[in-house]
Design goal:
By secondary structure, this protein is an alpha+beta fold. 31% of the residues lie in helices and 26% in strands. The protein folds into 4 domains: 91 residues, Nucleotidyltransferase, domain 5 (2-Layer Sandwich); 167 residues, Nucleic acid-binding proteins (OB fold (Dihydrolipoamide Acetyltransferase, E2P)), CATH 2.40.50; 120 residues, Aminopeptidase; 73 residues, Ribonuclease E, catalytic domain (Hypothetical Protein Ychn, Chain: A, 3-Layer(aba) Sandwich). A hairpin with a 2-residue loop joins strand 3 and strand 4.
Length: 498
């Protein structure tokens, strides 16, 4: 049996939000009771265009493709298909000819729906949508909708009614209730969202009236701005920003769009770096590691693959004060709490399998499962947790919202290719000797063989495996020369024949 967990954001106190900013990247740490609970990283070089609103100009209309190319001020022209033009679909479900809707030189407001890929430009839409905390605003549509991901019919109707009821007077636009509203939404939250989005749209329209050439009208919020919009609530005690310019920019943003955050914002001016002051960098290093130590002396082992992530719980040095079953129970209880936190920090998504230490008592199993469910209920991301299966494993699923921490900060090891292990020097030696044996049979006219390998492999061939090398030379009746190649890894080698 699976249980769906919904995080009630307003009920979870957040002690601190730390915002570390540089020209290259922004890092946001969420602390609860002084302990790192969430981590977000955004790099300037990887910031996409999706959500950006542009004032564009049609440079070419292609009736055969029912598409158009627009200049929006980017390096490459952007692509607009008939299906992405608001009002192009007829009552019969077909589309009007694009040449009847657009012409060269025409100017219109568009939004990026898909980032450029390779040589292809950005994909556009004329359906403008602006995201708030709980709502998405559709300025050119009067429809009130609810995200299709909210499956509960009664809840969908309740949220639609709430949005319709609190809609601002004389409001012409429409709204879509975001999936996160499923986790708890109030009338005040909807009103705050509507007021914020109305101000945002007014700013975009005024900007469009002022510009005379294709240009950016609105860029989707930065990580720091989204943090103020989405994560600040009554339980937030302080928001510390370590960059003066970013602090001023966030203060100005908060005054206009998130008034509740104004008094909580503080410029951190300590001598030590902000993340170092709160040991965040150390926590990041731990979250990148495969092994996580438990205070009790036990430890967890995390393995992330393409299909799933696995977590193995071990007692380690913990022996307990009573019997072994008590040791196992206490280790599993602590592991449940740490696992929930590590899933957030590592941002692991998809299928997650937890192998708790086997417990003989049913009450212990239920207590551990209950603690795991309580701990993951604090997650902002949707999760499902099953009970123990017949193999003693607990399966969970966690929605993929962004790249995992490891995929963001790391890349595949060029030495092991992602295996996490490399061949021993002795294994490589034997591979080389087998290859020389094979080549000697194929190229009997060759006079000598030369081995290029790393220092460790060459040393082993000259020392412990020298007898095997000598016997091979006698067998093939040709000399074998050795040469160290300093740039080779332990697994790299070549055999040169001459």
């Amino acid at each position: 049996m699976c249980t769906l967990f919904k995080r009630q954001v307003e009920h979870r106190p957040v002690e601190q939000i730390l915002i570390n900013t540089s020209r290259e990247e922004t890092r946001v740490a969420i602390l609860d009771d002084g302990l790192l609970q969430d981590l977000f990283i955004e790099r300037a070089c990887a910031r996409g265009l999706v959500g950006n609103v542009y004032w564009g100009q049609v440079v070419r209309v292609l009736p055969g493709m029912q598409s158009a190319f627009l200049d929006v001020g980017l390096e490459r022209t952007a692509f607009l298909h008939i299906a992405e033009i608001e009002g192009a679909r007829t009552d019969t479900g077909t589309f009007k000819p694009i040449e009847s809707l657009l012409h060269e030189g025409q100017r219109l407001m568009v939004q990026v729906a898909k980032d450029p890929i390779g040589t292809k430009g950005a994909r556009l839409t004329t359906t403008i949508s602006l995201a708030g905390r709980k709502l998405v605003y559709l300025p050119n549509d009067s429809h009130i909708g609810v995200s299709q991901r909210i499956e509960d019919a009664a809840l969908r109707e309740e949220l639609r009614t709430l949005a319709t009821t609190v809609r601002l007077k004389d409001e012409k636009g429409g709204y879509i209730v975001r999936t996160c509203a499923e986790e708890g939404a109030t009338e005040q939250e909807f009103l705050s969202d509507m007021a914020y989005l109305a101000r945002l749209w007014d700013g975009i329209r005024h900007r469009a009236q002022e510009v005379k050439k294709p240009t950016l009208l609105y860029q989707d919020l930065t990580l720091a701005q989204r943090t103020l919009r989405d994560m600040v609530h009554e339980g937030t005690a302080v928001i510390e920003v370590d960059d003066g310019a970013e602090y001023e920019a966030l203060l100005e943003f908060a005054k206009h769009f998130v008034p509740a955050a104004v008094d909580k914002l503080h410029h951190y001016e300590g001598e030590r770096p902000l993340f170092e002051q709160y040991d965040i960098d150390e926590e990041i290093e731990l979250a990148l590691g495969r092994r996580v130590e438990l205070k009790s002396g036990g430890y967890l082992v995390f393995d992330q693959t393409e299909a799933m992530s696995t977590i193995d719980v071990n007692t380690g040095a913990y022996v307990g004060k009573r019997d072994f079953s008590d040791t196992v129970f206490k280790t599993n209880l602590e592991a449940a709490q740490v696992i929930a936190r590590q899933l957030r920090l590592r941002n692991l998504g998809g299928i997650i399998i937890v192998d708790f230490i086997d417990m003989a008592k049913d009450e212990h199993r239920e207590a551990v499962l209950s603690e795991l469910r309580r701990a993951v209920s604090l997650d902002r991301t949707k999760m499902t947790v099953s009970g123990f299966n017949e193999l003693g494993l607990v399966a969970m699923t966690r929605k993929r919202t962004r790249e995992s921490l490891a995929h963001t900060l790391c890349e595949t090891c060029p030495v092991c290719g992602g295996r996490g292990e490399i061949k021993t020097a002795r294994t490589v030696c034997y591979d080389i000797l087998r290859e020389i044996t094979r080549l000697a049979k194929l190229y009997k006219e060759m006079k000598e063989f030369r081995i290029l390998a790393s220092q460790t492999v060459i040393d082993l061939l000259l020392e412990e495996e020298s007898q095997a090398l000598e016997l091979l030379q006698q067998a093939i009746e040709r000399p074998i020369l050795l040469e160290v190649e300093s740039v080779y890894t332990q697994e790299q080698w070549d055999v040169i024949i001459a």
